[in-house]
Automatic annotation (TrEMBL):
Residues 7-268 form the Pyruvate carboxyltransferase domain. Catalyzes the condensation of the acetyl group of acetyl-CoA with 3-methyl-2-oxobutanoate (2-ketoisovalerate) to form 3-carboxy-3-hydroxy-4-methylpentanoate (2-isopropylmalate). GO terms for cellular component: cytosol. Keywords: Acyltransferase, Amino-acid biosynthesis, Branched-chain amino acid biosynthesis, Cytoplasm, Leucine biosynthesis, Manganese, Metal-binding, Transferase. Gene3D superfamilies: 1.10.238.260, 3.30.160.270, Aldolase class I (3.20.20.70). Pfam families: HCS_D2, HMGL-like, LeuA_dimer. SMART domains: LeuA_dimer. This is 2-isopropylmalate synthase. It catalyses: 3-methyl-2-oxobutanoate + acetyl-CoA + H2O = (2S)-2-isopropylmalate + CoA + H(+). Homodimer.
Length: 519
Protein backbone atom coordinates (compact mmCIF):
# COMPACT_ATOMS: atom_id res chain seq x y z
CA UNK A 1 0.00 0.00 0.00
CA UNK A 2 1.59 3.27 -1.06
CA UNK A 3 -1.01 5.79 0.07
CA UNK A 4 -0.07 6.46 3.68
CA UNK A 5 -3.37 8.20 4.37
CA UNK A 6 -5.46 5.13 3.53
CA UNK A 7 -6.71 3.15 6.55
CA UNK A 8 -7.66 -0.45 5.82
CA UNK A 9 -10.88 -1.69 7.35
CA UNK A 10 -10.67 -5.29 8.57
CA UNK A 11 -14.10 -6.56 9.55
CA UNK A 12 -14.29 -9.45 11.99
CA UNK A 13 -18.07 -9.59 12.52
CA UNK A 14 -18.06 -13.18 11.27
CA UNK A 15 -15.22 -14.28 13.57
CA UNK A 16 -14.82 -12.17 16.71
CA UNK A 17 -18.40 -10.88 16.33
CA UNK A 18 -19.69 -14.42 16.21
CA UNK A 19 -17.83 -15.12 19.47
CA UNK A 20 -20.47 -13.02 21.28
CA UNK A 21 -22.29 -15.64 23.35
CA UNK A 22 -25.46 -16.52 21.48
CA UNK A 23 -24.61 -14.68 18.27
CA UNK A 24 -24.05 -17.79 16.17
CA UNK A 25 -25.08 -17.23 12.55
CA UNK A 26 -26.15 -19.82 10.01
CA UNK A 27 -24.07 -20.66 6.97
CA UNK A 28 -26.35 -18.73 4.63
CA UNK A 29 -26.48 -15.72 6.93
CA UNK A 30 -22.68 -15.61 7.02
CA UNK A 31 -22.50 -15.70 3.24
CA UNK A 32 -25.04 -12.93 2.97
CA UNK A 33 -23.23 -10.71 5.49
CA UNK A 34 -19.88 -11.37 3.79
CA UNK A 35 -21.31 -10.33 0.44
CA UNK A 36 -22.70 -7.13 1.96
CA UNK A 37 -19.33 -6.34 3.59
CA UNK A 38 -17.59 -6.91 0.27
CA UNK A 39 -20.03 -4.60 -1.52
CA UNK A 40 -19.61 -1.99 1.19
CA UNK A 41 -15.86 -1.77 0.51
CA UNK A 42 -14.44 -3.61 3.50
CA UNK A 43 -10.77 -4.29 2.68
CA UNK A 44 -10.38 -7.52 4.63
CA UNK A 45 -13.13 -9.84 5.87
CA UNK A 46 -12.18 -12.22 8.66
CA UNK A 47 -14.62 -14.97 7.75
CA UNK A 48 -14.05 -17.40 10.60
CA UNK A 49 -11.74 -19.80 12.40
CA UNK A 50 -11.53 -22.79 10.02
CA UNK A 51 -10.19 -25.36 12.51
CA UNK A 52 -12.93 -24.53 15.03
CA UNK A 53 -15.58 -26.69 13.36
CA UNK A 54 -16.65 -28.23 10.09
CA UNK A 55 -19.27 -25.48 9.82
CA UNK A 56 -16.70 -22.69 10.24
CA UNK A 57 -14.46 -24.36 7.66
CA UNK A 58 -17.26 -24.57 5.12
CA UNK A 59 -18.40 -21.02 5.78
CA UNK A 60 -14.88 -19.61 5.29
CA UNK A 61 -14.38 -21.73 2.13
CA UNK A 62 -17.69 -20.62 0.60
CA UNK A 63 -17.14 -16.97 1.51
CA UNK A 64 -13.69 -17.24 -0.12
CA UNK A 65 -15.17 -18.79 -3.27
CA UNK A 66 -17.80 -16.04 -3.56
CA UNK A 67 -15.57 -13.09 -2.70
CA UNK A 68 -15.21 -10.31 -5.23
CA UNK A 69 -12.98 -7.51 -3.97
CA UNK A 70 -12.24 -8.04 -0.30
CA UNK A 71 -9.31 -10.04 1.01
CA UNK A 72 -10.70 -13.14 2.76
CA UNK A 73 -8.94 -14.04 5.97
CA UNK A 74 -9.15 -17.04 8.29
CA UNK A 75 -7.86 -17.26 11.85
CA UNK A 76 -5.49 -19.95 13.11
CA UNK A 77 -3.59 -20.61 16.29
CA UNK A 78 0.19 -20.82 16.22
CA UNK A 79 0.40 -24.43 15.12
CA UNK A 80 0.88 -26.11 11.77
CA UNK A 81 -2.42 -28.00 11.81
CA UNK A 82 -4.49 -24.84 12.28
CA UNK A 83 -2.58 -23.04 9.56
CA UNK A 84 -2.98 -25.96 7.10
CA UNK A 85 -6.72 -26.03 7.75
CA UNK A 86 -6.97 -22.26 7.42
CA UNK A 87 -5.19 -22.31 4.07
CA UNK A 88 -7.48 -25.10 2.79
CA UNK A 89 -10.42 -22.74 3.40
CA UNK A 90 -9.08 -19.33 2.33
CA UNK A 91 -7.14 -20.56 -0.71
CA UNK A 92 -10.35 -20.33 -2.79
CA UNK A 93 -10.37 -16.54 -2.49
CA UNK A 94 -9.07 -14.23 -5.17
CA UNK A 95 -7.11 -12.57 -2.37
CA UNK A 96 -6.55 -14.95 0.56
CA UNK A 97 -4.97 -14.11 3.91
CA UNK A 98 -3.83 -16.38 6.75
CA UNK A 99 -4.07 -14.80 10.19
CA UNK A 100 -2.15 -16.57 12.92
CA UNK A 101 -1.86 -15.49 16.55
CA UNK A 102 -0.37 -16.35 19.91
CA UNK A 103 -0.75 -14.79 23.36
CA UNK A 104 2.52 -13.00 24.19
CA UNK A 105 1.83 -11.48 27.63
CA UNK A 106 3.10 -13.28 30.76
CA UNK A 107 -0.30 -14.78 31.60
CA UNK A 108 -0.90 -15.91 28.03
CA UNK A 109 2.58 -17.45 27.73
CA UNK A 110 1.51 -19.53 30.73
CA UNK A 111 -1.51 -20.84 28.81
CA UNK A 112 0.59 -22.23 25.97
CA UNK A 113 3.36 -23.27 28.37
CA UNK A 114 6.11 -21.63 26.35
CA UNK A 115 8.94 -19.53 27.77
CA UNK A 116 10.03 -16.39 25.95
CA UNK A 117 12.60 -18.11 23.72
CA UNK A 118 10.39 -21.07 22.91
CA UNK A 119 7.64 -18.66 21.89
CA UNK A 120 10.01 -16.78 19.59
CA UNK A 121 10.83 -20.10 17.89
CA UNK A 122 7.15 -20.98 17.59
CA UNK A 123 6.33 -17.61 16.02
CA UNK A 124 9.14 -17.95 13.48
CA UNK A 125 8.15 -21.50 12.58
CA UNK A 126 4.42 -20.81 12.20
CA UNK A 127 4.65 -17.53 10.31
CA UNK A 128 7.16 -19.12 7.92
CA UNK A 129 4.79 -22.04 7.44
CA UNK A 130 1.93 -19.66 6.64
CA UNK A 131 4.11 -17.66 4.25
CA UNK A 132 4.93 -20.86 2.34
CA UNK A 133 1.23 -21.00 1.46
CA UNK A 134 0.30 -17.39 1.11
CA UNK A 135 1.91 -14.02 0.39
CA UNK A 136 -0.51 -12.23 2.68
CA UNK A 137 0.08 -13.27 6.29
CA UNK A 138 -1.14 -11.46 9.36
CA UNK A 139 0.35 -12.17 12.75
CA UNK A 140 -1.22 -11.07 16.04
CA UNK A 141 0.40 -10.73 19.45
CA UNK A 142 -2.65 -11.60 21.50
CA UNK A 143 -2.78 -9.43 24.65
CA UNK A 144 -0.04 -7.24 23.18
CA UNK A 145 -0.96 -4.37 25.48
CA UNK A 146 -0.03 -6.37 28.62
CA UNK A 147 3.13 -7.78 27.05
CA UNK A 148 6.50 -6.48 28.34
CA UNK A 149 7.56 -3.76 25.88
CA UNK A 150 11.02 -5.18 25.11
CA UNK A 151 9.56 -8.61 24.54
CA UNK A 152 6.82 -7.17 22.33
CA UNK A 153 9.52 -5.62 20.15
CA UNK A 154 11.26 -9.01 19.93
CA UNK A 155 8.16 -10.96 18.93
CA UNK A 156 7.12 -8.38 16.37
CA UNK A 157 10.62 -8.39 14.87
CA UNK A 158 10.53 -12.18 14.68
CA UNK A 159 7.18 -12.21 12.89
CA UNK A 160 8.39 -9.62 10.40
CA UNK A 161 11.59 -11.62 9.74
CA UNK A 162 9.49 -14.73 9.16
CA UNK A 163 7.48 -12.88 6.52
CA UNK A 164 4.36 -11.44 8.18
CA UNK A 165 2.96 -8.59 6.09
CA UNK A 166 0.53 -7.25 8.69
CA UNK A 167 1.24 -7.13 12.41
CA UNK A 168 -1.73 -6.79 14.71
CA UNK A 169 -1.36 -5.28 18.19
CA UNK A 170 -4.58 -6.33 19.95
CA UNK A 171 -5.95 -4.97 23.16
CA UNK A 172 -7.49 -8.37 23.79
CA UNK A 173 -9.03 -7.51 27.15
CA UNK A 174 -10.03 -3.89 26.52
CA UNK A 175 -7.53 -2.60 29.07
CA UNK A 176 -5.70 0.19 27.31
CA UNK A 177 -6.38 3.93 27.02
CA UNK A 178 -5.82 6.13 23.95
CA UNK A 179 -2.45 7.54 25.00
CA UNK A 180 -1.04 4.05 25.61
CA UNK A 181 -2.58 2.64 22.44
CA UNK A 182 -0.77 5.33 20.44
CA UNK A 183 2.46 5.05 22.42
CA UNK A 184 2.84 1.32 21.70
CA UNK A 185 2.42 1.72 17.94
CA UNK A 186 4.87 4.63 17.93
CA UNK A 187 7.39 2.60 19.93
CA UNK A 188 7.16 -0.37 17.57
CA UNK A 189 7.60 1.84 14.52
CA UNK A 190 10.67 3.41 16.07
CA UNK A 191 12.34 0.36 17.58
CA UNK A 192 11.59 -2.67 15.42
CA UNK A 193 13.76 -3.23 12.35
CA UNK A 194 11.59 -3.71 9.26
CA UNK A 195 8.53 -2.07 10.88
CA UNK A 196 8.32 0.42 8.04
CA UNK A 197 7.77 -2.44 5.54
CA UNK A 198 4.63 -3.85 7.16
CA UNK A 199 1.19 -2.59 8.16
CA UNK A 200 0.35 -2.27 11.82
CA UNK A 201 -3.20 -3.17 12.79
CA UNK A 202 -5.18 -2.29 15.86
CA UNK A 203 -7.79 -4.67 17.36
CA UNK A 204 -9.52 -3.19 20.39
CA UNK A 205 -12.07 -4.58 22.78
CA UNK A 206 -14.59 -2.39 24.51
CA UNK A 207 -14.43 -3.53 28.14
CA UNK A 208 -13.88 0.05 29.33
CA UNK A 209 -15.84 1.66 26.49
CA UNK A 210 -12.58 2.78 24.86
CA UNK A 211 -12.44 0.63 21.73
CA UNK A 212 -13.16 3.35 19.19
CA UNK A 213 -10.94 5.93 20.89
CA UNK A 214 -8.09 3.43 21.21
CA UNK A 215 -8.32 2.36 17.57
CA UNK A 216 -8.26 5.97 16.36
CA UNK A 217 -5.32 6.79 18.64
CA UNK A 218 -3.39 3.86 17.16
CA UNK A 219 -4.10 5.18 13.67
CA UNK A 220 -2.87 8.65 14.64
CA UNK A 221 0.37 6.98 15.75
CA UNK A 222 0.85 5.06 12.50
CA UNK A 223 -1.40 1.98 12.46
CA UNK A 224 -3.07 1.60 9.08
CA UNK A 225 -5.52 -1.23 9.66
CA UNK A 226 -8.48 -1.09 12.03
CA UNK A 227 -10.11 -4.33 13.10
CA UNK A 228 -13.76 -3.85 13.87
CA UNK A 229 -17.25 -5.30 13.69
CA UNK A 230 -20.68 -4.11 12.66
CA UNK A 231 -22.56 -2.76 15.72
CA UNK A 232 -19.43 -3.43 17.80
CA UNK A 233 -20.36 -7.09 18.17
CA UNK A 234 -17.70 -9.31 19.76
CA UNK A 235 -16.37 -11.11 22.82
CA UNK A 236 -17.64 -9.73 26.13
CA UNK A 237 -18.29 -5.97 25.68
CA UNK A 238 -17.48 -6.26 21.99
CA UNK A 239 -15.01 -4.81 19.53
CA UNK A 240 -14.47 -1.42 17.93
CA UNK A 241 -17.63 -0.64 15.95
CA UNK A 242 -16.97 -0.30 12.21
CA UNK A 243 -19.57 2.44 11.84
CA UNK A 244 -17.97 4.52 14.60
CA UNK A 245 -14.39 4.52 13.35
CA UNK A 246 -15.38 4.96 9.73
CA UNK A 247 -17.69 7.89 10.47
CA UNK A 248 -15.18 9.46 12.88
CA UNK A 249 -12.57 9.41 10.14
CA UNK A 250 -15.06 10.85 7.65
CA UNK A 251 -16.43 13.55 9.96
CA UNK A 252 -13.09 14.65 11.53
CA UNK A 253 -10.87 14.87 8.45
CA UNK A 254 -9.33 17.95 10.09
CA UNK A 255 -7.92 15.87 12.95
CA UNK A 256 -7.79 12.52 11.18
CA UNK A 257 -6.52 13.21 7.63
CA UNK A 258 -7.17 9.66 6.45
CA UNK A 259 -9.57 7.84 4.17
CA UNK A 260 -11.24 4.45 4.13
CA UNK A 261 -12.74 2.58 1.20
CA UNK A 262 -16.15 2.22 2.89
CA UNK A 263 -19.36 3.24 1.16
CA UNK A 264 -20.89 4.71 4.30
CA UNK A 265 -24.39 4.84 2.80
CA UNK A 266 -24.56 1.07 3.27
CA UNK A 267 -23.94 1.25 7.03
CA UNK A 268 -27.52 1.50 8.30
CA UNK A 269 -28.93 -1.41 6.33
CA UNK A 270 -26.04 -3.66 7.25
CA UNK A 271 -26.33 -2.70 10.90
CA UNK A 272 -30.00 -3.70 10.88
CA UNK A 273 -29.27 -6.98 9.13
CA UNK A 274 -26.45 -7.93 11.51
CA UNK A 275 -28.70 -7.10 14.43
CA UNK A 276 -31.35 -9.44 13.03
CA UNK A 277 -29.15 -12.40 12.23
CA UNK A 278 -27.16 -12.16 15.46
CA UNK A 279 -30.24 -11.58 17.61
CA UNK A 280 -28.44 -8.64 19.28
CA UNK A 281 -30.62 -5.50 19.24
CA UNK A 282 -28.80 -2.20 18.75
CA UNK A 283 -29.15 0.00 21.83
CA UNK A 284 -31.27 3.10 21.14
CA UNK A 285 -28.48 5.55 21.94
CA UNK A 286 -25.74 3.63 20.10
CA UNK A 287 -23.43 6.01 18.23
CA UNK A 288 -24.19 6.33 14.51
CA UNK A 289 -26.71 3.47 14.10
CA UNK A 290 -28.88 3.75 17.23
CA UNK A 291 -32.54 4.57 16.72
CA UNK A 292 -32.07 7.90 18.54
CA UNK A 293 -28.80 8.83 16.84
CA UNK A 294 -30.53 11.41 14.62
CA UNK A 295 -33.63 12.17 16.69
CA UNK A 296 -34.15 15.54 18.35
CA UNK A 297 -36.64 15.52 21.18
CA UNK A 298 -36.11 18.70 23.17
CA UNK A 299 -37.42 22.10 22.06
CA UNK A 300 -34.13 23.98 21.91
CA UNK A 301 -32.57 21.23 19.83
CA UNK A 302 -35.58 21.03 17.51
CA UNK A 303 -35.59 24.80 17.10
CA UNK A 304 -31.87 24.76 16.33
CA UNK A 305 -32.13 21.96 13.81
CA UNK A 306 -35.04 23.64 12.05
CA UNK A 307 -33.06 26.87 11.72
CA UNK A 308 -29.76 25.23 10.81
CA UNK A 309 -29.36 21.46 10.84
CA UNK A 310 -25.64 21.75 11.66
CA UNK A 311 -26.42 23.12 15.12
CA UNK A 312 -27.07 19.64 16.46
CA UNK A 313 -26.05 17.24 13.67
CA UNK A 314 -22.41 16.47 12.96
CA UNK A 315 -23.20 14.11 10.09
CA UNK A 316 -26.07 13.74 7.67
CA UNK A 317 -28.46 10.82 8.12
CA UNK A 318 -28.07 10.16 4.39
CA UNK A 319 -24.31 9.61 4.90
CA UNK A 320 -25.09 6.33 6.65
CA UNK A 321 -27.97 5.45 4.33
CA UNK A 322 -30.88 6.81 6.34
CA UNK A 323 -33.07 8.27 3.65
CA UNK A 324 -36.59 9.54 3.66
CA UNK A 325 -38.55 8.41 0.67
CA UNK A 326 -41.91 9.80 -0.32
CA UNK A 327 -43.51 6.37 -0.58
CA UNK A 328 -45.77 5.86 2.44
CA UNK A 329 -46.47 2.20 2.97
CA UNK A 330 -49.95 1.18 4.09
CA UNK A 331 -52.84 -1.16 3.41
CA UNK A 332 -53.34 0.29 -0.09
CA UNK A 333 -49.77 -0.29 -1.25
CA UNK A 334 -49.00 -2.89 -3.89
CA UNK A 335 -46.11 -5.20 -4.69
CA UNK A 336 -44.21 -2.64 -6.79
CA UNK A 337 -44.07 -0.13 -3.94
CA UNK A 338 -43.13 -2.87 -1.49
CA UNK A 339 -40.34 -4.12 -3.77
CA UNK A 340 -38.98 -0.61 -4.22
CA UNK A 341 -39.12 0.17 -0.51
CA UNK A 342 -37.43 -3.10 0.43
CA UNK A 343 -34.75 -2.49 -2.14
CA UNK A 344 -34.06 0.93 -0.51
CA UNK A 345 -33.68 -0.94 2.76
CA UNK A 346 -31.14 -3.29 1.20
CA UNK A 347 -33.36 -6.32 0.56
CA UNK A 348 -33.60 -7.56 -3.00
CA UNK A 349 -36.05 -10.42 -2.80
CA UNK A 350 -36.90 -13.13 -5.30
CA UNK A 351 -40.53 -13.10 -6.52
CA UNK A 352 -41.64 -15.93 -4.23
CA UNK A 353 -40.06 -14.27 -1.19
CA UNK A 354 -41.67 -10.97 -2.12
CA UNK A 355 -45.06 -12.64 -2.37
CA UNK A 356 -44.60 -14.15 1.06
CA UNK A 357 -43.60 -10.82 2.60
CA UNK A 358 -46.47 -9.13 0.77
CA UNK A 359 -49.02 -11.39 2.44
CA UNK A 360 -47.54 -10.62 5.85
CA UNK A 361 -47.30 -6.94 5.01
CA UNK A 362 -51.04 -6.79 4.15
CA UNK A 363 -51.92 -8.62 7.34
CA UNK A 364 -49.84 -6.15 9.34
CA UNK A 365 -51.28 -3.15 7.49
CA UNK A 366 -54.77 -4.31 8.47
CA UNK A 367 -53.74 -4.11 12.11
CA UNK A 368 -51.48 -1.10 12.04
CA UNK A 369 -52.14 2.42 10.72
CA UNK A 370 -48.65 3.36 9.65
CA UNK A 371 -45.99 0.96 8.44
CA UNK A 372 -42.47 2.21 9.16
CA UNK A 373 -39.18 1.03 7.69
CA UNK A 374 -38.46 -0.81 10.93
CA UNK A 375 -41.75 -2.72 10.59
CA UNK A 376 -40.71 -3.92 7.15
CA UNK A 377 -37.29 -4.98 8.37
CA UNK A 378 -38.95 -6.94 11.17
CA UNK A 379 -41.31 -8.58 8.68
CA UNK A 380 -38.43 -9.66 6.48
CA UNK A 381 -36.67 -11.11 9.46
CA UNK A 382 -39.73 -13.19 10.25
CA UNK A 383 -40.35 -14.39 6.72
CA UNK A 384 -36.81 -15.30 5.76
CA UNK A 385 -36.31 -17.28 8.91
CA UNK A 386 -39.56 -19.13 9.40
CA UNK A 387 -39.55 -22.48 7.67
CA UNK A 388 -42.20 -25.14 7.32
CA UNK A 389 -39.54 -27.72 8.15
CA UNK A 390 -39.19 -26.46 11.74
CA UNK A 391 -39.51 -29.29 14.25
CA UNK A 392 -41.59 -27.17 16.63
CA UNK A 393 -44.23 -24.85 15.20
CA UNK A 394 -46.65 -22.56 17.00
CA UNK A 395 -50.17 -23.07 15.65
CA UNK A 396 -52.52 -21.23 17.99
CA UNK A 397 -52.32 -19.26 21.19
CA UNK A 398 -54.78 -17.72 23.63
CA UNK A 399 -53.72 -15.97 26.82
CA UNK A 400 -55.87 -14.82 29.69
CA UNK A 401 -54.45 -11.87 31.64
CA UNK A 402 -55.65 -9.72 34.49
CA UNK A 403 -55.88 -9.36 38.22
CA UNK A 404 -57.44 -12.82 38.60
CA UNK A 405 -54.32 -14.51 37.26
CA UNK A 406 -52.81 -15.51 33.96
CA UNK A 407 -53.15 -18.61 31.86
CA UNK A 408 -51.94 -19.69 28.42
CA UNK A 409 -53.62 -22.13 26.07
CA UNK A 410 -51.28 -23.25 23.29
CA UNK A 411 -51.39 -25.55 20.29
CA UNK A 412 -48.12 -26.55 18.67
CA UNK A 413 -46.88 -29.22 16.32
CA UNK A 414 -43.92 -31.32 17.39
CA UNK A 415 -42.42 -33.01 14.35
CA UNK A 416 -45.77 -32.57 12.59
CA UNK A 417 -47.91 -33.96 15.44
CA UNK A 418 -50.34 -31.48 16.98
CA UNK A 419 -50.25 -31.14 20.77
CA UNK A 420 -51.89 -28.71 23.17
CA UNK A 421 -51.57 -27.47 26.76
CA UNK A 422 -53.37 -25.11 29.11
CA UNK A 423 -51.13 -23.80 31.87
CA UNK A 424 -51.28 -21.05 34.52
CA UNK A 425 -48.26 -18.85 35.11
CA UNK A 426 -46.79 -15.93 36.91
CA UNK A 427 -47.60 -13.41 34.19
CA UNK A 428 -48.57 -14.04 30.55
CA UNK A 429 -45.07 -14.73 29.22
CA UNK A 430 -44.31 -17.14 32.05
CA UNK A 431 -47.61 -18.95 31.38
CA UNK A 432 -46.78 -19.24 27.68
CA UNK A 433 -43.26 -20.54 28.21
CA UNK A 434 -44.61 -23.07 30.72
CA UNK A 435 -47.17 -24.16 28.12
CA UNK A 436 -44.37 -24.69 25.59
CA UNK A 437 -42.48 -26.76 28.18
CA UNK A 438 -45.60 -28.79 28.97
CA UNK A 439 -45.75 -29.75 25.29
CA UNK A 440 -42.01 -30.04 24.72
CA UNK A 441 -40.13 -30.67 27.99
CA UNK A 442 -36.71 -29.04 27.98
CA UNK A 443 -33.87 -28.32 30.40
CA UNK A 444 -32.80 -25.25 28.45
CA UNK A 445 -32.25 -22.30 30.74
CA UNK A 446 -33.55 -18.87 29.79
CA UNK A 447 -30.57 -16.50 29.86
CA UNK A 448 -32.05 -13.43 28.21
CA UNK A 449 -35.59 -12.32 27.44
CA UNK A 450 -35.69 -8.95 25.75
CA UNK A 451 -38.55 -6.98 24.22
CA UNK A 452 -38.07 -3.96 22.00
CA UNK A 453 -40.79 -1.88 20.37
CA UNK A 454 -39.86 -1.59 16.69
CA UNK A 455 -41.60 1.77 16.29
CA UNK A 456 -43.66 4.16 18.37
CA UNK A 457 -47.36 3.80 19.21
CA UNK A 458 -49.41 1.21 21.02
CA UNK A 459 -49.84 -0.73 17.78
CA UNK A 460 -46.06 -1.01 17.35
CA UNK A 461 -44.56 -4.37 16.50
CA UNK A 462 -42.45 -5.83 19.25
CA UNK A 463 -39.22 -7.63 18.48
CA UNK A 464 -38.52 -10.24 21.10
CA UNK A 465 -35.12 -11.89 21.58
CA UNK A 466 -34.73 -14.98 23.68
CA UNK A 467 -31.41 -16.55 24.57
CA UNK A 468 -31.30 -20.14 25.86
CA UNK A 469 -28.46 -22.20 27.25
CA UNK A 470 -28.20 -25.97 27.49
CA UNK A 471 -25.03 -28.00 28.14
CA UNK A 472 -22.85 -25.01 27.28
CA UNK A 473 -24.62 -24.35 24.01
CA UNK A 474 -26.10 -20.89 23.70
CA UNK A 475 -28.65 -19.97 21.03
CA UNK A 476 -30.81 -16.98 20.28
CA UNK A 477 -34.30 -16.87 18.81
CA UNK A 478 -36.09 -13.71 17.75
CA UNK A 479 -39.49 -12.84 16.35
CA UNK A 480 -41.64 -9.79 15.70
CA UNK A 481 -45.38 -9.22 16.00
CA UNK A 482 -47.81 -6.51 17.08
CA UNK A 483 -48.77 -9.06 19.73
CA UNK A 484 -45.84 -9.05 22.14
CA UNK A 485 -46.88 -12.31 23.79
CA UNK A 486 -47.16 -14.14 20.47
CA UNK A 487 -43.75 -12.77 19.43
CA UNK A 488 -42.35 -14.04 22.74
CA UNK A 489 -43.64 -17.56 22.15
CA UNK A 490 -42.36 -17.59 18.57
CA UNK A 491 -38.94 -16.39 19.70
CA UNK A 492 -38.79 -19.01 22.46
CA UNK A 493 -39.85 -21.83 20.15
CA UNK A 494 -37.41 -20.60 17.49
CA UNK A 495 -34.57 -20.79 19.99
CA UNK A 496 -35.64 -24.32 20.98
CA UNK A 497 -35.54 -25.35 17.31
CA UNK A 498 -32.00 -23.99 17.04
CA UNK A 499 -30.93 -25.70 20.22
CA UNK A 500 -32.30 -29.02 19.06
CA UNK A 501 -30.35 -28.87 15.82
CA UNK A 502 -27.16 -27.78 17.55
CA UNK A 503 -27.37 -30.58 20.09
CA UNK A 504 -27.75 -33.13 17.29
CA UNK A 505 -24.37 -32.15 15.87
CA UNK A 506 -21.28 -33.72 17.38
CA UNK A 507 -19.12 -30.58 17.61
CA UNK A 508 -20.46 -27.90 19.96
CA UNK A 509 -19.76 -25.23 17.33
CA UNK A 510 -21.24 -27.17 14.45
CA UNK A 511 -22.87 -24.94 11.90
CA UNK A 512 -26.49 -25.00 10.81
CA UNK A 513 -26.08 -25.14 7.12
CA UNK A 514 -29.22 -26.59 5.65
CA UNK A 515 -32.07 -25.08 7.58
CA UNK A 516 -32.80 -21.63 8.91
CA UNK A 517 -34.14 -21.89 12.44
CA UNK A 518 -34.99 -18.39 13.48
CA UNK A 519 -38.71 -17.84 13.38
C1 LIG B 1 -8.81 -13.51 21.64
C2 LIG B 1 -9.48 -14.41 20.70
O1 LIG B 1 -10.52 -14.06 20.24
S1 LIG B 1 -8.74 -15.84 20.28
C3 LIG B 1 -9.92 -16.73 19.37
C4 LIG B 1 -10.91 -17.35 20.26
N1 LIG B 1 -11.86 -18.10 19.51
C5 LIG B 1 -12.16 -19.35 19.79
O2 LIG B 1 -11.58 -19.96 20.67
C6 LIG B 1 -13.29 -19.96 19.03
C7 LIG B 1 -12.90 -21.25 18.38
N2 LIG B 1 -12.28 -22.20 19.29
C8 LIG B 1 -12.56 -23.54 19.27
O3 LIG B 1 -13.43 -23.99 18.53
C9 LIG B 1 -11.74 -24.43 20.11
O4 LIG B 1 -11.20 -23.71 21.19
C10 LIG B 1 -10.60 -25.07 19.25
C11 LIG B 1 -11.22 -26.02 18.22
C12 LIG B 1 -9.77 -24.02 18.54
C13 LIG B 1 -9.66 -25.86 20.16
O5 LIG B 1 -10.43 -26.78 20.90
P1 LIG B 1 -9.70 -27.79 21.91
O6 LIG B 1 -8.68 -28.56 21.16
O7 LIG B 1 -10.78 -28.54 22.58
O8 LIG B 1 -8.89 -26.87 22.93
P2 LIG B 1 -9.46 -25.89 24.05
O9 LIG B 1 -10.41 -24.91 23.45
O10 LIG B 1 -9.97 -26.67 25.22
O11 LIG B 1 -8.15 -25.15 24.54
C14 LIG B 1 -7.41 -24.32 23.68
C15 LIG B 1 -6.06 -24.97 23.34
O12 LIG B 1 -5.41 -24.12 22.37
C16 LIG B 1 -4.16 -23.69 22.90
N3 LIG B 1 -3.96 -22.35 22.36
C17 LIG B 1 -4.66 -21.24 22.63
N4 LIG B 1 -4.22 -20.23 21.87
C18 LIG B 1 -3.24 -20.74 21.12
C19 LIG B 1 -2.41 -20.19 20.13
N5 LIG B 1 -2.55 -18.92 19.75
N6 LIG B 1 -1.51 -20.96 19.52
C20 LIG B 1 -1.36 -22.27 19.88
N7 LIG B 1 -2.13 -22.85 20.81
C21 LIG B 1 -3.06 -22.08 21.42
C22 LIG B 1 -4.34 -23.73 24.40
O13 LIG B 1 -3.09 -23.79 25.04
C23 LIG B 1 -5.13 -25.03 24.54
O14 LIG B 1 -4.23 -26.08 24.33
P3 LIG B 1 -4.33 -27.47 25.20
O15 LIG B 1 -5.64 -28.10 24.81
O16 LIG B 1 -3.14 -28.24 24.73
O17 LIG B 1 -4.27 -27.05 26.62
C1 LIG C 1 -7.07 -13.29 17.75
C2 LIG C 1 -6.89 -11.91 18.25
C3 LIG C 1 -6.64 -10.95 17.15
C4 LIG C 1 -8.06 -11.44 19.03
O1 LIG C 1 -9.21 -11.63 18.67
C5 LIG C 1 -7.79 -10.65 20.23
O2 LIG C 1 -6.65 -10.56 20.65
O3 LIG C 1 -8.77 -10.11 20.81
Amino acid sequence: MTDNTRVLIFDTTLRDGEQSPGATMTHDEKLEIAQALDEMGVDIIEAGFPIASEGDFEAVSDIARNSKNSVICGLSRANLKDIDRCWEAVKHARRPRIHTFIGTSPSHRGITNLDQDQMIERIYQTVTHARNYCEDVQWSAMDAIRTERDYLCRVVETAIKAGATTINIPDTVGYTLPQESAEIIRMLLERVPGADRIIFATHCHNDLGMATANALAAVSAGARQIECTINGLGERAGNTALEEVVMAIKVRRDLMPYTTGIDTTKIMNLSRRVSQVSGFPVQFNKAVVGKNAFLHESGIHQDGVLKNVETFEIMKPADIGLTETNIAMGKHSGRAALRSKLSDLGFDLADNQLNDVFVRFKALADRKKEIYDEDLVALISDSTANTDSDYLQVKWLRVVCGSDGQEAELKMTVDGVEKSARVPGDGPVDACFKAVKAIYPTNARLKVYQVQAVTQGTDAQATVSVRLEEDGRIVTGSAADTDTILASVKAYVGALNRLRVRSQKTAPDADMKTVSYKI
